[in-house]
Here is the input.
Amino acid sequence: MSDGGDPRDRLRRALGLHDAVFLVVASVVGSGIFLTPGAIADRLPDPAWIFAAWIVGGLLSLAGALANAELGAMYPRAGGDYVYLREAFHPLAGFLVGWLTFFAIFAGTVATLAVGFSEGLVSFLELPRGAVLPIAVATIVAASLLNVRGVRWGAVLNNVTGWMKVGALLAFALVAPLTGRGEVENLMPVFEGLGERITPLAFALALSPVLFSYLGWNSSIYVASEIRDPGRNVPRSLFLGLATCTVLYLLLNAVYLYAIPVPELRGVENAGEASAGVLFGEFGGRLLAGFVLASILGTLNATILVGPRIAYAMSLDGLFLRGGDHVHPRYATPAGSIGVQALVAVTLVLVLRSFPSVLDYTTFAILLATMADVAALYALRMRQPDRERPYRAWGYPVVPALYIAANAAIAGGLLIGRPWEAGLGVLALLSGLPFYLFFVARRPRREP
Here is the structure.
């Protein structure tokens, strides 16, 4: 029998397919595609390898989306991978992944986006550097308060910013070659094939910012209890949203490389602004810098909308802080969990302070969590073979296995190349264990 949702869930089904697709688009297309290409160029030698990294990142995300589409359609509940791991293995497995997803991935992404937005705003307005942290904190607080006001407020903002992003970026990509100010020769290695050889470790490290830039492809599964007809709309939202983002990313990388050769792109903080400056002059650079800030703000809003649903789902099972399942009596939003996420994100901003450190910490946590929920697909196929599946993952069992293997290799590369940030991700996972024991001892005895 199909799962209609958790009977204790008091959130409303207010989102349609259009809302769910643009939740994915707004979540994915934010700071990454503008702020990470310089770091990727620093780790890869030529355009062919750069495009290979973005294509591999898109394919890996698609492989994860195929598995999550089946899981999300089976369990149209708030909480996403927390629910899947709980049902597939044990409440402890669900809790640890949910804990990691909430505290490292979503709260970490909120912190990353807030710092990226603040640094960009300080540079754009030529404010003193001391303003970065206060602006980042104020941005988190303001966006969190907006999402307390209602899921429709957040969805409308996502839809508007999503259409603006798609339209503006397509226009940028299509008009760029008409300026004649770039060099087609910069792209020639793409047609000549992979040139200079690189090590697997270098490619794995380059995939860290790529995968961060794709973060958000699974956003709709976390709000499945608020999506109408989730058996159909959750899978569709994943595929349509991810396809839109992948096409945009490849087009934008072509524009960046047309404007700036790889040696000059290395270490560039904002590839979008730099390439617009080359192609359209100083005014164009300033204009795109403003657009980047608006784009980051839209993604920050989408992330703040999605993340609290994990803590909310855990709270329904008595496995989170008291008040985490508090729903605003008027706006029907998980106000308690929104507040907790804001507090954690502000703490991360004050502790990590810089964009690259938060990025690698968040990416490593993403790899751990997504490998775990794809593993849950195998367990649920064996443990619940007769359960209704509105969508069945294409390529099973081969594609999910390739996904797990590829992500494990990237995680290993991060452990070697970025041990401090990866170590924080492992610590975030393990830190959940004593809290789980505390929450289990505290709650009334009942079936999970």
Remarks:
- The chain has a mean pLDDT of 87.
- The first helix runs from residue 17 to 28.
- The CA atoms of residues 217 and 242 lie 6 Å apart.
- DSSP finds 20 helices and no strands in the chain.
